[in-house]
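In the previous chapter we treated chains in isolation. Here, by contrast, the input contains two separate entities that must be folded as one system, with a combined length of 748 residues.
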Amino acid sequence: MSAALEPTVEGDCTFGTDEPFRLNSGAELQSGTLRYALYGELNETRDNALLVCHALSGSARVADWWPQLVGPGQPFDTNRYCVIGVNTIGSCYGSTGPLSENPQKPHEPYGSNFPLITINDIVRTQALLLDHLGIERLKAVIGGSIGGMQTLSWAVDFPERVERCIAIGAAPLSAMGLALNHLQRQAIRNDPNWREGHYPHDRQPVAGLALARAIALCTYKSSELFTERFARRPDRSGEDPNNSFAERYDIAGYLDYHGALFTKRFDANSYVLLSKAMDTFELGRGYGSENAALRRISAHLLLVGISSDWLFPASDVRGLAERALAAGVSAGYAELTSTHGHDGFLADADQLAPIVRTLLEEKEYPAFAQAGRG
Amino acid sequence: MSAALEPTVEGDCTFGTDEPFRLNSGAELQSGTLRYALYGELNETRDNALLVCHALSGSARVADWWPQLVGPGQPFDTNRYCVIGVNTIGSCYGSTGPLSENPQKPHEPYGSNFPLITINDIVRTQALLLDHLGIERLKAVIGGSIGGMQTLSWAVDFPERVERCIAIGAAPLSAMGLALNHLQRQAIRNDPNWREGHYPHDRQPVAGLALARAIALCTYKSSELFTERFARRPDRSGEDPNNSFAERYDIAGYLDYHGALFTKRFDANSYVLLSKAMDTFELGRGYGSENAALRRISAHLLLVGISSDWLFPASDVRGLAERALAAGVSAGYAELTSTHGHDGFLADADQLAPIVRTLLEEKEYPAFAQAGRG
């Protein structure tokens, strides 16, 4: 595997402000930092920027997690566009979040005192970064999952600042999605090391966070993929599930392994916070109704459903595209055929490439109004 | 709601033996007790018995959990049949299980020293009870979920002792099913009160068991049902999920409530044990292959899939019916259209009634060989 594309500006960039930032909850962040990465160059008119929004556990390093899409000649063509990745506030990859110092308690991290955030909060901080970079209008915003929610929020909250939007595997969570997110947070809260979120940095609630991640992995993948990859085979290390309670099937070994691995790279408070932000995402908030929110959109909007996604069922994504179309939006729907479930937007990104390229390069979008019916 | 039908013999019956019982694992139970309930009377030739196998958290009291099917004039017509419910070994409703005294450690329960059991073990203890009752051959065995696994096991392991079998929402678990069961057991094991299964009877790992049950509830229901019942409504007690981490959506309140309720009526060791028995169920064990196992069946076999079941997808149940048919079994497939997911066999039992009645009353089964194609 080749090394990931490096950002144009070496290392990641940081944008900091001492201006207080008022969150939707009413709470204020006294100061804030956004970690971001730029790939390619901003042109003189600063109208060639693509904002790529990461998913729950992603980072500003877009080329690390979407290598099929970012680079010279790729759909996010770094010879033409300036691709911007921004770590969301609340995350643990460089932007202000629960691991940051709490200004009210010097030398202590916020931990679970970090206030509730919304998708709209995340997007408004990104807008501040664009102001700082002198970008008035984005050529496009693109993202999958919670990154897709940010994309939708951009379209609604800053209609004048975005030309095209592609949201993949994203819609307001259904009751089943809310249920599965809740169970993940419960898994973390049940861990005695959780301590209401006030754990020492080196004593995370690892068992709970690993279980949360394992539940999430089931929601990110599909039954079909698990059958294909693991079937009913015993754990590859030679365990025999018929022998003892501890011996596992291969799928269980996989979930345990990836659950444990995740705890080395992600913070439990960030997890709870971002999962909650996912839950509360609704387009209508602040606009009276979803329809009123959709009617604000002036961007060309493409929603992409993933055929085997059961966290964000393709039918939900398509339904949203149809409501957008009905609200007068230049909206389209495309479906990614993938056995990877919700994760298809990462695992089958090569299939996304032509879809993304079309939206970015076409001047007219005759296909999209039709795609919802396809 | 009217009171449940009472068993014919007042109270539940108990069958005890001091004969050691050798389990598939090689371990031996020194002695054993089976709690059972009889509805209706055995006829003189003792050939009118229906064995009804309960699901994971069920009991011998069949009429309590399948009231639509058991009673005078109902499909399990207690005027004609003697309906037998048997609490499975390993459960906590009267039969030998983790809460029973461990003969090796007088006055202490087995707890997690209770040995691994298999579906075949459960069925062989039921066969001992039938010997005791003088029943050579069952008119039928019926069950859903893990009760359906027992039904399938009856057909394969005791072909000469059963005339008709109806297994609903049952097949060997797929990788996703194995994953979801594993996560439930992990939720229990993560609870510090679990103590490797050696908890005092009054200090169960309630948080872990409640979470396990909440995960299970998601696997027993369907996304469609959750949307219909809960949508994105806030918790009915007046919580606002936008306000704080603790405030929930209604679906989360529902899962928490039913999770907690479950811990008052079920033992964590029994849960782990029976969930593991579900995992290891495969028809081929001991017979070389699934096909060899299926070829042993002489009963008329009806498999019923549930349209919205994602724990035991209807396609898996149908696939098993097709393999049985191909192996020469008088096998059929019917599909219960239900939005209740796996729980449909309980929640929509009134729709099961005509299916069950047909299998029990028809002399010939022309419909079933066709049903798999329907």
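Chain A touches chain B through 55 residues (CB under 8 Å). The mean pLDDT of chain A is 94. Compare these points with the single-chain example from earlier in the chapter.
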